[in-house]
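Why run this: before we spend reagent on co-expression, it is cheaper to look at a predicted model of the complex and decide which construct boundaries make sense. The entries below are exactly what would go into the expression plan.
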Amino acid sequence: MSWGVTTMRAGAALAAFLALAPVATAATDEHCIVPAFLVEPLAQLPRATIAAKRDRKLEILLISGSPSQTGAAKGLRSYPSVFEDALRQRLPGLDIHLVVRAAPRRSVADTLPKLSEMLAEFQPALVIWQAGTADAYLGVEADDFADTLRRGIATVLKSGADAVIVDMQYSPRTDRLIDTPNYLAQMRWLAETMDVPLFSRYEIMRYWSDSGAFDLTSLKNDGLFEKVHMCIGNLLADFVARGASLDEFKGTGR
Amino acid sequence: MPPAALTGRDLRLDFFRGLSLWFIFLDHIPSNRLSWLTIRNYGFSDAAEIFVFISGFTAAFVYGRVMLDRGFVVASARILKRVWQLYVAFVFLSVIYIAQTAYVAHHFDNPLFADEMVVLHFLQRPEIILVEVLRLRFLLANVNILPLYILLMLVLPIMLWLILRSPPLAFAFSLAIWSAAYFGGLNLKLYPVEQDWFFNPFAWQLLFFLGAWCAVGGATWVRPLYQSNTVFAICVVYLLLAFALSITRVFPESVRLLPEWLLIFPLDKSGLSPLRLAHFLALTILVVRFVPRDAAFLRTPWAQPVIMCGRHSLEIFCLGVFLSLMGGFLLIEVSGTLAMQVAVSLFGLAIMVGLAALMSWYKSLDRRVPKQPATR
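The model came back. C-alpha cells follow.
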C-alpha cells in the first residue's frame, strides 16, 4: 500500500480526532459537513478567474470515465448537475455553463486522443477531470495512469484553461479489490507537483463514513446516491468558487 | 522447525519479526486508522521489508545448517515441506476471501457504486478463479506477501546452495535479477486484470536473499562497514531526511517549499525502490548498533508477546492475514467507527499473541517427550 495517502489519512484522522479543524459549512445539509482542510483548494485557478472577469461567463468541461457517477444513472441526480446549479446560485453575476463528457469505463489513455478536440469544441476556461475508477478497474498501472493524466492536464493548461482533478469515490466494499491508495497517491502527487487543485472525493467520503454521516456500506439503493451527490456537488461548487476567487460575482447581476 | 533454530537463538530476530507481523496486521485491515502507528508513515520502508529480510535470514540460518550437515536433498525436502504448508494456507485464505467477496457481490445493488461494482464481475467465472488461485495468479489485495513468501521459499534451496558455494556470485545474481525487475519491469501477471504482482518477486528476492546472505556469514564480512562511524553518521542523516520528507505528506502545502529533486514520492514499493532498500538497511544498522544481542529489554515480560509472535512467524503471519480479512469484514458489516477500529485491532493482536503462546506450549510438550521414552 502506498503510504502517501495513508499519511494524509493519518493526518486527517488525527486532526478530526482532536477536533482541531474548523468545518466547511458551504453546503446546506448538515450531513455534508467536512473539516475545512478536506475541501481547501491548495492551488489557484487563475485562468478561470481571468476568463470570468473578462467575459462574465464561465465555460466548464467535466470529463469522466465513470458515467454512473456523472449523470447517466437512471432517474438519479448526480453531482455535476448539482454542482452547476450550486455554482449558479452562489455566483448569480456569472453566466455558468457546464458540459459533461463521460464515456463508460474509458481510461485516461483512451480519453487523451479526444481531449484536444473537446477543448477546441467547448473552449472551456475550466476542466474538471474525474479519474481513477476506470483505470483501476481496467488494471492500468498506477504510474502509467499518472503519466497519462499528467500529459492530459498539461494539454488542458496549454489550451488556456485551468484544471481541477477529482479523484475516486471511497467505496468500502470494493476498495480491497482495487489498489485504490496507489492511484490516489499518484493523483495527489500529480496535483501537488503540477500546481493543480485536487478535489478528493475519496477523503471526503472517507470522512463521512468514519464519522457516521453516511453509511457507505449500504447494499441497496436507499437514497444514498442522491444524498452523497448532493453534498459532493455543493462542496465542489464551493471549492471551485474559492479556487478561482470568484466571490466578486456573488449577488451581482440578475 | 529443526532443532538448530532452538539453540543460540538471536532474540532480536524474533522481536523485530514479531513487531513487523503486528504492523502488517494493523496495516492490512482496510481503512484502519490505527495503521498510522506503524513505521510506514515515518520513513521510506515499512514492515514488509523487515519481515522479508528476517524471513530470509532465519530461513538461511536454519536450513543452511541442515544443508551443511545433511546435504542438499534433506534441506530441500524440509524447505519444500514448508512451501507446501504456505501454499495450503494461501489457498485456505483465498477461499475465505472469495466467499466474502461473493457474498458482497450477490447482495450489492447500490447505484452509488455502480462503476466500482464492475470489479466484482470476475466472480461470474468460478471455474476460472479457482484455477487462478491454485496458479497463484489471483492474489488477495493487501495480503500479497504470502505468495511472495511461497515463491521465495521455493527457490531457496538453489539460492542457498549458491550462497554457501559462492557468496559474491549469489549476491551478484540476486542483484542482477532485481535490476531486471526494477529497471526492466520484469514481473508476474495477475487475474482478472493483467496487473503486475504488487510485491514483485523478482525485486523483493533481493531483500530475502540479502537476509540469507547475512545469516550464512555475510554479516561478518560487512562488519567493518556497519560498525564504521562514518557509515553510522550517513545512516542517521538519511533516516532523518526520510523522516522529514515523510512528514511533508501530512502537510501538502509544504511540498511547495521542496526543491524539485526532492519530489520523489510515491516511492516504488512493487519494485523495491533503492531508496526504500537503503532506508531499511540504515534502520538495520542503527538497530544492530543500539540493540545488542543480549539487550535487557528482550528479557522483560512486555517484550515476550512480540517475541513469541516472531518465533512462530509462519502461523502468526497466516493468522494475521486471516484476522485482517475478518477485521475488514467486521468494520464493513457491523460498524466502522474509530472505536470499532481500535477494538478490532486490539482483539486481533490478542488472538495472535494467544495462538503464539499456544504454539509455544505445544512445542514445550514436544521437547519434554523424549525425556520419557517408550513409556507405553
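Residues 1-27 of chain A have pLDDT under 50 and may be disordered. The longest strand of chain A covers residues 57-64. Bring this page to Monday's planning discussion.
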